[in-house]
Design brief:
- By secondary structure, the chain is of the alpha+beta class.
- It has a single domain, classed as Sandwich (Jelly Rolls), CATH 2.60.120.10.
- The strands form two sheets. A four-stranded antiparallel sheet has the order 1-8-3-6. A four-stranded antiparallel sheet has the order 2-7-4-5, with no helix packed on it.
- A hairpin with a 4-residue loop joins strand 4 and strand 5.
- The N terminus is likely disordered.
Amino acid sequence: MFSFTTYTKSEVKQMLDAASRTTRDIKPTQTSLAQKKLIEVSKHIYLFSGINNEDVIAITNDVQFMEYAKDEVIFKEGDQSDDIYFLLRGFLSVEVGREQKQVARISPMELFGEMAFISKKPRNATIRALEDKSTVIKFVVDDDAYESATSFAFMKLYKNIATIVVKKLEASNEIIAGMRAEAE
């Protein structure tokens, strides 16, 4: 769909190497290891742009690097959760409705799940892996960590989310404009 940054092959390899050293389920006692791995790739995640490593650790909880098989569901439309996700490897389908019609595709290095985080409402789509070994980082932003992180970190985080949402809206508007032009 769209991308914020172009990554070199070396940078992508670095991120995939960091993800491949993880397991499907990170146990709570391993959270610090998962957060260290998140720090390894956070410079490539626009959400954390301008936020120092200490604040990334302070504002994230329950960090998990997860690998999905083809057709496995990451989350379902209607699920109640405010986890945020970042796709490292593979492609994902965004599906809506009873028929689970694919309406979009998530590519590597894209963030997803931010709408439920902001709105605190149920998920508005199902996300499904389109290929084996799709690797996702899942984490919770800890709003209660306001005391341990700088207010600047939270300000940057929300500004970055707003930028991501605006880019997605702009991409959707382009698609709609193209559909209108085809219909005329």
